[in-house]
Amino acid sequence: MKFVGIAQQIRKNNQKSVLLLIAFPLLVLASVFAVVYFLSFDEYGNANQQLATDLFINAIPFVTTIVLVWFLIAYFAHGKMIALATGAKTLERKSNMRVYNLVENLCMSVGMKMPKVQIIESPALNAYASGLKEKDYTVTLTRGIIETLDDDELEGVIAHELMHIRNKDVRLLVVSIIFVGIFAFVVQIAFRGFLYGGMGRSRNNRDSGKLMIIILIVSAVAYLFSLLFKFSLSRKREYMADSGAAEMTRKPWALASALKKIAPNHHVETKSEEVQQMFIENTPKDTSANFFGSLGGLFATHPPIEKRIQFLEQF
């Protein structure tokens, strides 16, 4: 993979953020239209396109309001949600000067304001970056990664997370997670409605069951497409952060060595599957993506760690 400069990568990720903000709402509206369209067929199988169009137009303000409120709440509360999911706590400077010195020196080398530093009390080896604004930028490390890696390796991991912040990867990931979460929520509601609300024999129950089936199928298809799109973006950002870290530290071998140690012991227990996607290493086995078996690679948030190591060894 060709290395892309930091300025170009930031510009690309800003463009992707805008495209995501446009593409996901369009996917939501397309799903709504598909639902009302399939509900506009009469008992003889004839479509009433005018009725479908009218229902769709009337639904737009309602759907837009719900999506906007959901997005704003999730967008601005994501930091607290992540901390609650991982149990991350602030790492005091006086308790670990080694980590603070590594973070501070890297930030000074690229003229970047030092982010907050947090720790997860887990023996696993992992790390992630979070924060949407400069004052909220945070690098979080597990106890295991701090105690296992040497200075050069830990510096490479920290540089990787700093690159996610500099590249605006965090914002890109948060936007995609929020919209994918909307589809996941609709799928769950539709599935439960189908199981518990549409099993009766009355006409109202049959109509309700039909509605739930249509919503379930449409939202499941939309959810699948949104996942594939999000995972594709997520895998690419890991390569970019790896290459940026190699450039920042001038020690690509150190990050490659760190990844070799991280690979067999990276899983961190969290209360949210979405948070797993933020870690420096995450495999389908860590999430429901493992359900897809041989197709799990398509649903993986990270490229295979072996390929990332090979990529770093090319420098």
Describe the overall structure.
This protein has 315 residues and is mainly alpha-helical. The chain has a domain of 220 residues. Helix content is 66%, strand content 5%. It has a four-stranded mixed β-sheet, with helices on both faces. The longest helix has 47 residues. It is elongated and about 70 Å long.
Give a short overview.
The protein is mainly alpha-helical. It is built from ten helices and four strands; from the N terminus they run H-H-E-H-E-E-E-H-H-H-H-H-H-H.
Q: What is the residue-mean pLDDT, rounded to a whole number?
A: 81
Query: How much is the radius of gyration in Å?
Result: 22 Å
Form type: elongated
Q: Portion of residues in helices? A: 55-70%
**Run of helices and strands:** HHEHEEEHHHHHHH
- Main sheet characteristics: 4 strands, mixed
Widest sheet: strand ordering: 1-2-4-3
Low-confidence stretches: 199-203, 289-294
**Tally of strands:** 4
Beta-strand content: 5-15%
Q: What is the end-to-end distance?
A: 11 Å
Structural class: mainly alpha
Assembly type of the chains comes to single chain
- Number of helices, where a helix is a run of at least 4 consecutive DSSP H or I residues: 10
